[in-house]
UniProtKB/TrEMBL annotation:
Keyword annotations from UniProtKB, A to Z: Lipid biosynthesis, Lipid metabolism, Membrane, Oxidoreductase, Transmembrane, Transmembrane helix
A cellular component term, taken from the record's GO annotations: membrane
TM annotation in the entry: 242-263, 269-287
Organism domain of life: Eukaryota
Residue span, Ubiquitin-like domain: 2-69
InterPro entries per the UniProt record, alphabetical: 3-oxo-5_a-steroid_4-DH_C, SRD5A/TECR, Ubiquitin-like_dom
Name of this chain's protein: Ubiquitin-like domain-containing protein
Compartments where found: Membrane
Source organism: Agrocybe chaxingu
Family affiliation: Belongs to the steroid 5-alpha reductase family.
A Gene Ontology BP annotation from the UniProt entry: very long-chain fatty acid biosynthetic process
Length: 313
């Protein structure tokens, strides 16, 4: 057994004022067992709130890492780790559920109660019905994936971030998009719709086909990613196959196609605004994932694979 000291990287929370803590552990003990020892001493200091690092470093150590590996094989008496309180946490699954529920609530309110928002009834056009169906099916699919498909590498996030994360969907894909699309401008009797391509059945069916292709392709890539990570692990592998042979994040690429279809078929300012925001945010996510893939797998990772857009970027 080896004596390990656990000090604080910042001001300790009120329920762990007794830190630093010294415990006896085996070299093959994991970071998860260190967190458990802290919880045993300070029951309110839950594992999800703890970020464990080597002394003086900021990179968190994952739960599966052994102490021997964390210290590069030099784990001995006097070794020290630091713990930081991350504050109250909420599961990523809960965050996703809250994010996607917003548009599922907002769109029906605008679609079914137009008099409240626009001061008049709206005879819905075919394009409004299509978009309404697209949006609801998209977010129902996302909720389904949250419960039955996604496997999260990180268990929790600070509860304070849930508002920030949800705003993108609740405001842009929810309130702004719904308010713009279901207003009288797009109604069945509007000059913007009557005798235009937006009222052409063939055009609408083509848009529906492109949208359905993007959604099913997005689901397929999520299933591919799920198959790479056994349940209860943080294992990472190189994804191959449909979409992944061209870009690192085809799930984002296919989602962009879906929102671009809605923006293009309606020519909605809110639609283009949400599309622009989605491309910007998913580009940041894709860049980070692409970089991590290349860092983790080195020469094994396909050199010609782009980040987000096939053959381009």
């Amino acid at each position: 057994m080896v004596q390990l000291t656990i000090s604080t990287a910042s001001k300790p929370p009120p329920f762990a004022r007794g830190l630093p803590l010294t415990i006896d552990v085996a070299p093959d003990a994991t970071i998860a067992s260190v967190k458990a020892a802290i919880v045993a001493k300070y029951p309110k200091f839950k594992s999800a709130r703890q970020r464990i690092t080597l002394k003086g470093e900021k990179k968190p150590l994952i739960d599966e890492t052994t102490l021997s590996d964390a210290f590069g094989g030099q784990f001995k008496d006097g070794a020290e780790l630091q713990v930081k309180d991350l504050g109250p946490q909420v599961s990523w699954r809960t965050v996703f559920v809250v994010e996607y529920f917003g548009p599922l609530l907002v769109h029906p309110l605008f679609y079914h109660f137009p008099r409240f928002w626009y001061g008049q009834d709206v005879q819905h056009s075919a394009i409004q019905k299509y978009v309404y169906t697209f949006v609801l099916l998209h977010f129902i699919k996302r909720e389904f994936e949250t419960f039955f498909v996604h496997r999260f590498s990180q268990g929790t996030m600070p509860i304070s971030n849930i508002i920030r994360n949800s705003a993108h969907y609740h405001i842009l894909a929810g309130v702004f998009l719904a308010f713009d699309i279901y207003r009288p401008k797009y109604s069945a009797t509007s000059p913007y719709i009557v005798n235009t391509i937006r009222n052409n059945e063939t055009f609408l069916w083509i848009c529906a086909g492109i949208w359905a292709f993007s959604e099913l392709s997005n689901l397929h890539t999520h299933l591919t990613l799920r198959a790479l990570r056994p349940e209860g692990t943080r294992k990472r592998g190189i994804p191959y196959g449909y979409g992944f042979n061209l870009v690192s994040c085809p799930n984002y690429f296919f989602e962009i196609i879906g929102w671009a279809t809605i923006a293009g078929m309606t020519n909605s300012i809110a639609g283009y605004g949400f599309l622009a925001a989605a491309i910007w945010i998913m580009s940041i996510w894709a860049a980070k994932k692409h970089k991590n893939y290349k860092k983790d797998f080195g020469k094994e990772y396909p050199r010609g694979r782009k980040m987000l857009f096939p053959f381009v970027w």
